[in-house]
Amino acid sequence: LSPWEENKVLNTYYLVKNDSVTVSTDGVRIKVPVANIAVNSCSHVAYIDALSKVELIVASSDPEFVYNENFRKQLADGSVKNLGGSYDMNFEQILKVSPEVLMVTGFNGVDKTALRVQQSGIPVVYNYEWVEKTVLGRTEWIKFFGVLFDCREKADSIFNEIKTEYMFETLFINWSVNPELLSLGPISLRWYSLLFVSGFVLGWFIFRGFFRREGVPETLLDPLLYTLLIGTIVGARLGHCLFYQPDYYLGSWQGFTEIFMPWKGGLASHGGTIALFIAMWWFARHYGRKYDFDFV
């Protein structure tokens, strides 16, 4: 079912164990258990590893970001091939590997490369665990892998065990705060944004006290605020783009232009922190000589 439209069937899969079985043309035919699989996301590896099937992975997008020990060994010995970035898979490499199944995330909506792969005869399955809003919702996707590898009982057992532990941990604490503080039509105010702005406002008053104590002109408060605010936003955006998806943002003109669209992807706090220190250093260098201070 579609995670975006209620009661809409997004993909249909027919799982068969016998090559002689014929199925309807309105879905994807997959022979199970699959003997090997190519994955489009690092998170897929964790599910497969939980089922002790990592050795069946023959290709992966962004394999350098996977830190599973068994997977790394396979990558090192060449038994796992690199399919390129999650947003721009290498079509020729997929055909060369020829996996029994290609699992993709659907980050790009209808993935053009995935469609070409499907047309070439390689079954493509979509995994939408990333749109789940709860921990157990994402965990339950292990059952999907269990069906593909014909180990449903093990997948069900793992899920039930995690569910029991999770329910016990949350027995006395139910943290379900809505990320949106206020919504007016298409405009919404989120807690993250409120705290982000509040930090700069509070910082302005704190720095005012420092300036008064050190004899620094208070007229520099506003330039300092603008410097830190711009630096933090730019740094946080670049941090997200360069730390998490450099192949996508630097690999195409479309990706590069989206660097300037922070609403597509978001911000990374550690990038903002790094830029904050750089902005403070620049401010001290730029104004310190004139007003006789060398710190902020």
Molecular structure report:
With 296 residues, this protein is an alpha/beta fold. The protein is built from twelve helices and nine strands. Strands 5-4-3-6-7 form a five-stranded parallel beta sheet, sandwiched between helices. Helix 4 links the parallel strand 6 and strand 7. It is elongated, with a radius of gyration of 25 Å.
- The separation of the N and C termini measures 54 Å
Number of helices: 12
Uncertain stretches? none
Sheet with most strands: strand arrangement:
5-4-3-6-7
Mean pLDDT: 88
Sequence of secondary-structure elements: EEEHEHEHEHEHHHEEHHHHH
Oligomer: single chain
SS strand fraction: 5-15%
Largest sheet: 5 strands, parallel
Rough shape? elongated
Rg to the nearest angstrom? 25 Å
How many runs of DSSP E, i.e. beta strands?
Answer: 9
Helix content: 40-55%
What structural category characterises the helix and strand content?
A: alpha/beta
